Amino acid sequence: MISRQLSERIAFGLIIVAAAIVILPIFFIIGYVVVQGLGAISWTFLTEMPREGMRAGGVMPAIVGTLLLTLGTAIVAVPIGLGGAIYLSEYAGDNATTRAIRIAIINLAGIPSVVYGLFGLGLFVIFLNFGTSILAGSLTLGIMTLPVIISTAEEALRAVPQSFRLVSTSLGGTRWQTIQRVVLPQALPGIITGIILGVERAAGETAPILFTAAAFFLPRLPASIFDQTMALPYHLYVISTQVPGMPIQIQYGTALVLLVFVLSLNLVATLIRRHYRKQRVW
């Protein structure tokens, strides 16, 4: 019969093996992209417009376009997602309607991004006549990220101990004052995690912006939210599949820029989350 100590060691070893199986390929992929693409990274590559059919020059329009789409996604998704999470966590009762809404949100999170792209094409580009633009792309990506933000923010709010709410109410605080001054500050680390997960997904998506915002080649920066824009995910797809004779170093250089962009968002979120976690009282 296996002793408790031995079974614990076996379980711990299996967990380490499972973690290594997940983590090592990630480090390998990141390392390979860095090694292959680092030679293409230069000030010229980061700040110049593409030229010679995107075989030379830089990726400045794609970087700016990705920043604008990411910012637009956050502007659209964060207020609506946080408001929905607050309603479901603090106001909605535990009934069939609320449970159906939560199931719908979970199902929406699993819908392929290309479906959101077709939805954005039909609603924003054609029906509302926004055209292929930053606005249409941001709205589409915002809708796509809403389920992730709502689910994670709601879980963060529900994780705050109920005693905090009871104490605030007993001291004369209204429900909204309790949410604003007690619940939200304590749930902020989890809320930030959900926001960054959603925004990171939007920053790396190709299919939705393919239908709603991205241009094949634009040697200029967008002037308004109704302009098309280049974006790093779509630009990487184009130079990898649609441009004959594209140097492999430029492809991996573009992939490295996108990777650094996403990891930078994650780093900023981690620092902010750590700051607010230190201020939690439980």
Topology of helices and strands:
Layout: H1 4-37, H2 43-47, E1 50-51, E2 56-57, H3 60-91, H4 96-109, H5 113-127, H6 134-158, H7 162-170, H8 175-203, H9 207-212, H10 232-241, H11 248-278
Antiparallel strand pairs: 1-2
Helix pairs in contact: 1-11, 3-6, 3-8, 4-6, 5-6, 6-8, 7-8, 8-11, 10-11
Descriptive notes:
The structure is a single chain. The protein is 74% helix and 1% strand. It is built from 11 helices and 2 strands; from the N terminus they run H-H-E-E-H-H-H-H-H-H-H-H-H. It has helices spanning 4-37, 43-47, 60-91, 96-109, 113-127, 134-158, 162-170, 175-203, 207-212, 232-241, 248-278, and strands spanning 50-51, 56-57. By secondary structure, it is mostly helical. It starts with a helix and ends with a helix. A hairpin with a 4-residue loop joins strand 1 (50-51) and strand 2 (56-57). It has a two-stranded antiparallel ribbon. The chain has a single domain (60-278), classed as MetI-like (MetI-like fold, Orthogonal Bundle).
